[in-house]
Amino acid sequence: GAIVNNAVTITFDEGTATLNNNPFSSGDTVGDEGAYNLIVTDDAENTTTIAFTIDKTAPTITINGVENNKTYQQVTPIITSNDAQATLTTILEREGTPVPFTQGSVISQAGNYTLTVKATDLAGNETTETVSFSIYVPSPPVGPVEPDPSPDPGPIVTLPSIESTNMNVVYVLTNGRLVLYQNGQPVPIVVTETTG
Fold first, then answer.
1. Bridge partner list, 64
2. Burial class (CB in 10 A: 0-12, 13-18, 19+), 17
3. CB-CB contact of 77 with 88 (8 Å)
4. Whole-angstrom Cα distance, residue 196 to residue 191?
5. How distant is the alpha carbon of residue 144 from its chain centre?
6. For the CA atoms of the chain, what is the radius of gyration?
7. What are the tens digits of pLDDT across the range 96-123?
8. How far is CA 60 from CA 63, 86, 89, 126, 127, in A?
9. Which sign does the torsion angle of CA 77, 78, 82, 86 carry?
């Protein structure tokens, strides 16, 4: 039968009626919550039965896994209602912009969030709950700074030995190379490569 969330006024143009087995007159109003069964019998003894329910109570919503105005590294909101037949509608916003959300999914991206949940029962009663929270993702720790490797000392230059101090010895830098002149003649310089 129909489910409504307000009072019902019932009229019929002939015969008699009972409402939940109690006599009922045309034009009377039913306003209390509950399930009803109306039986109308016309003058020819034909009967018509109408079942309906008056439900004025809105469903409740429970949001677990996240609390209002709290900060987390990640959350998994779980949404339930005391009315198993109620329809749940969820809207998740990050920094004011709607983002996809599925019941039971993990929220881990940094930002400020608002989760709005609306429950609507079969009678059309509605309840809305909102929870605001933040996700903070800390930066990864900075490891120790590794010292730079020792610079390459470069080649070791071994100068030839000079036996006589009376010789005319001159060192000349030519085209980026160190050249030893002894008595006006170039003398070989031994270069030994080293690795660090």
1. 78
2. buried
3. no
4. 16
5. 32
6. 46
7. 999 999 988 999 999 999 999 999 999 9
8. 10, 10, 13, 9, 7
9. positive
